[in-house]
């Protein structure tokens, strides 16, 4: 029931975002030169971001590094405050740069493994290079297990350390 | 047989690209500040690009506009010369801005409909907002039906006009 409500809420948020996104585009077009869109979307302009989940999985396997997938929405205040804390945290940014493949998405993928307890935002999911979603690496909220708030950056860092301990693959 | 060879060739190209891509990243990191990656990748910095195929399909349906998907590779000279002609062609850029949803990808999707005759680059595929891949809209090369060269911009423009005539969906 709650999950159903969350899905409905997500669709409503997505619709609201799409209508609000459509307007600024046209405004910018009328005003003059647009600023090229970036793949980082503000989550770390100095990091190398994958564009798609397929690309991210390719890099995770090729480099044997864990993958962090961030789901967010551009006009969601919870996403915005988490993004600020995330981008300003030098430890998080350094570990990501050295040891992770990273992807941020504003649209859900078709892979249901990436939404173990629903399609809310912001939500951070780790994926092992063996292609296994690390559903065991969770935040502190029992109703949204993969959500993080700005005060959770230490927990996120410790979860990143967990993700770096790769799952043993069968020989 | 030829298709098999093309697949092998694509994998080889992808491996070559991945190894050559890995190096500049590290060099840039040592030299100092990185330039944030853009979604346009030089195919039209002033256009609004979708990030993923899922997002592009969502926008195509929501806005009832045809979708153009460009497959390319960053260090493929044919992709580079086509990109230059494409980005500099004001007519193409104007029609795309007004009437199309656009996506450029350097990694293949899992959807085989997007590679009707193989996974070569550069390759331009149109998708109708009814979610139908327009396999009927082709370039001038019988061995790579969705390839375009810099001298083909007029043909591409005329194909864009074809894609704008949307398929009739059942009532």
Kindly report the average pLDDT value of chain A. Answer: 86
The largest pleated sheet of chain A is described as: 3 strands, mixed
CA distance, first residue to last residue of chain A:
42 Å
Q: Largest chain interface and its two residue counts?
A: A-B, 31 and 31 residues
Proportion in β-strands of chain A? 5-15%
Radius of gyration of chain A from the CA trace?
Answer: 16 Å
What is the multimeric organization of the chains shown?
A: homodimer
- Determine the fraction of residues in helical runs of chain A and give it as a percent range: 40-55%
What ranges of chain A have pLDDT less than 50 throughout 5 or more consecutive residues?
Answer: 8-30
The secondary-structure class of chain A comes to: mainly alpha
The geometry of chain A reads as globular
Count of individual beta strands of chain A: 3
Task: Please work out how many helical segments of chain A DSSP would assign.
Answer: 5
Going across the biggest sheet of chain A, name each strand in turn. 2-1-3
Following the backbone from N to C, one meets helices and strands of chain A in this order, namely HHEHHEEH
Keywords (chains A, B): Endoplasmic reticulum, Secreted, Signal
Family (chains A, B): Belongs to the AGR family.
InterPro entries (chains A, B): AGR/TXD, Thioredoxin-like_sf
Signal peptide (chains A, B): 1-22
């Amino acid at each position: 029931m709650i999950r159903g409500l969350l899905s409905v809420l997500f669709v409503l948020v997505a619709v609201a975002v799409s209508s609000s996104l459509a307007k600024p585009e046209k405004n910018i077009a009328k005003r003059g030169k647009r600023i090229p869109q970036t793949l980082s979307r503000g989550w770390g302009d100095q990091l190398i971001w994958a564009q798609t989940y397929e690309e991210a999985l390719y890099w995770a396997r090729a480099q044997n590094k864990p993958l962090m997938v961030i789901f967010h929405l551009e006009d969601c205040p919870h996403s915005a405050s988490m993004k600020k804390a995330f981008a300003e945290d030098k430890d998080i940014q350094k570990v990501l740069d050295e040891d992770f493949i990273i992807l941020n998405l504003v649209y859900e993928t078709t892979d249901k493994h990436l939404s173990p307890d629903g399609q809310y935002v912001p939500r951070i999911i780790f994926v092992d290079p063996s292609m296994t979603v690390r559903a065991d690496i969770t935040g502190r909220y029992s109703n949204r297990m993969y959500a993080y708030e700005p005060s959770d950056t230490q927990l996120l860092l410790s979860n990143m350390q967990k993700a770096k301990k790769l799952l043993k693959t069968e020989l």
